[in-house]
Design goal:
It is a single chain. The protein is α+β, with helices and mostly antiparallel strands. The protein has three domains: 221 residues; 143 residues, no CATH class; 44 residues. It is built from 17 helices and 16 strands. The strands form five sheets. A five-stranded antiparallel sheet has the order 4-5-7-6-11, covered by helices on one side. β15 and β16 form a beta hairpin. The longest helix is centred in the last third of the chain and has 21 residues. The radius of gyration is 26 Å and the shape is globular.
Length: 479
């Protein structure tokens, strides 16, 4: 073990789960226990009961505990409430250098790799009996709406730790990891806590319990290839090109075309295990799913949607869940969603409603594409906000409660409100400019636009140079 690791006492022991599961919070955690008959059985408990539940665990049984917290007594991702940490399961026994070595030797290599790779050291490291579990605690749990960003962090941590055997199939929010001080019958070793960090570095802070924790956004900025600020700057630089793409896309969509499934992609002619496909999260799809669930609450669907209206919300929810790609078992997660919209439906009815969603998701996982307007695209269903509003009959008052499913009028209202608040904040900070100063600057930009146009520059180039939103805006200003 490194000298750094030796300096840290390990008082948590079996209560390691209490470092990230707060018993003062509402919600549930799950335990998976392997019985004497070899079958695994799962039970969910309220977080407030965690200390008592842990004390009753038989250490001679393989036992796993959920890392996420849920608002229903099961660990389906659609029921996720919050994530209190990030984690990577390291199958070090698959790495030649580490196979068969002691937990302390493996830990030393992990900490050394983090230093070399520029990764923050994990808050906790557990020896699982064969490999390691590295965990980064959050100052505040990540809410479920941020699940796609959390998933992106998981993927990047996995990529950076792949030389140590990081398991790409153990990145989902419903994952269970071995409970400390219970046996791993594959090796006859006890899972045990081997490291806890109490010295903040790389944006970490010392939390109330003495362990190092991380602000989620700070950890994202530290680990991800581009920080949010850098990404915003890059997006601004690419705005003219995006506007050109938008124009070309509108032209393509104006043409009539057929939707035709074709074989293609890197898996053409080969069978692929879709469970091994790396997840690509979509914040928009996940947010749209949240909007439909919010709509159910607004309409008082506590016992499910009205009998004649159940197909559409379940079908759309399944579409967005498939697009988000944050769940490892889509069919089972859809069945869990059905308990919200159609609680009395049979498995056959659920299958009938969502079979095409599953088929397209499976096609996407195999690498297939479809031809749309002459271009290859992902075969999963895609929806426009206007279509969703019409199909679901969303009213203007309901739109105000939505996050992403909004029409043009609501978008304009929100934009105007944001600008109003920005102006008020600028005035409060003494940063607002007078009307006369604004007009003077505006006239200077218009004059510059006319000069550049006379010199032969295109309106798009003028817009880019002077900061206009589009070529049309520059053209209007230059008249």
């Amino acid at each position: 073990m490194t000298s750094t690791a030796c300096r840290h006492a390990l008082p948590l022991a079996r209560e390691e789960a209490l470092a990230y599961h707060d018993t003062q919070r509402a919600g549930f955690f799950s335990l998976l226990v392997q019985g004497a008959d070899g079958k695994r059985r799962q039970r969910s408990h309220k977080l407030e009961h965690l200390p008592e539940v842990i004390k009753r665990i038989d250490p001679a049984r393989d036992t796993w505990i959920s890392q996420g917290e849920f608002f229903r007594p099961n660990r389906r991702v659609v029921n996720l409430w919050r994530m209190p940490l990030a984690y990577i399961d390291l199958d070090t026994y698959n790495v030649t250098e580490l196979a068969g070595r002691s937990a302390e030797f493996q830990l030393a290599r992990l900490l050394e790799h983090c230093n070399v790779a520029g990764l923050p050291q994990p808050s906790l490291v557990v020896f699982s009996g064969r490999g390691l579990q590295a965990k980064w605690l959050f100052e505040k749990p990540v809410p479920r709406k941020a699940l796609p960003r959390w998933q992106a962090l998981q993927k990047e941590l996995c990529r950076r730790l792949s030389p140590l055997g990081a398991d790409p199939k153990a990145l989902d929010a419903s994952r269970v990891l071995r409970l400390v001080e219970t046996v791993n019958t594959k090796s006859d070793n006890l899972a045990r806590l081997v490291y806890q960090d109490t010295t903040p570095t790389m944006g970490g802070v010392r939390m109330a319990g003495g362990l190092v924790g991380y602000d989620f956004d700070v950890l994202m900025d530290t680990v991800m290839p581009l920080t949010r600020t850098a990404l915003e700057l890059l997006n601004e630089e690419r705005r003219p090109q995006r506007e050109l793409w938008a124009f070309e896309k509108a032209a393509r969509e104006a043409r009539k075309a057929q939707l035709l499934v074709v074989a293609g992609g890197k898996t053409c002619g080969a069978k692929v295990n879709s469970s091994r496909r790396v997840l690509v999260p979509s914040e928009l799809a996940w947010a749209r799913l949240a909007d439909i669930r919010k709509l159910a609450v607004l309409r008082g669907w506590a016992e499910g949607a009205p009998a004649q209206e159940r197909d559409l919300p379940l079908f759309l929810s399944a579409c967005f869940l498939a697009q988000a790609m944050v769940v490892p078992h889509l069919r089972e997660e859809i069945a869990e969603l059905a308990t919200e919209f159609a609680p009395t439906w049979t498995a056959a009815q659920i299958e009938s409603c969502t079979s095409s969603v599953l088929a397209r998701a499976e096609a996407a996982a195999r690498g297939e594409v479809v031809q749309f307007n002459g271009f290859p695209v992902d075969p999963r269903y895609r929806w426009r906000n206007g279509t969703l509003i019409d199909r679901l009959g969303i009213t203007p008052s309901e739109e105000r409660q939505m996050c992403t499913i909004i029409g043009g009028d609501e978008a304009k209202r929100r934009d105007a409100e944001r600008k109003r608040l920005t102006r008020e904040q600028a005035r409060a900070d003494g940063l607002a400019i007078s009307r006369a100063d604004w007009r003077e600057g505006h006239e200077q930009k218009r004059a510059s636009a006319r000069i550049l146009r006379a010199q032969g520059h295109s309106w798009q180039a003028i817009a880019t140079q002077l900061g206009y939103a589009s070529a049309d805006a520059a053209r209007m200003a230059g008249k």
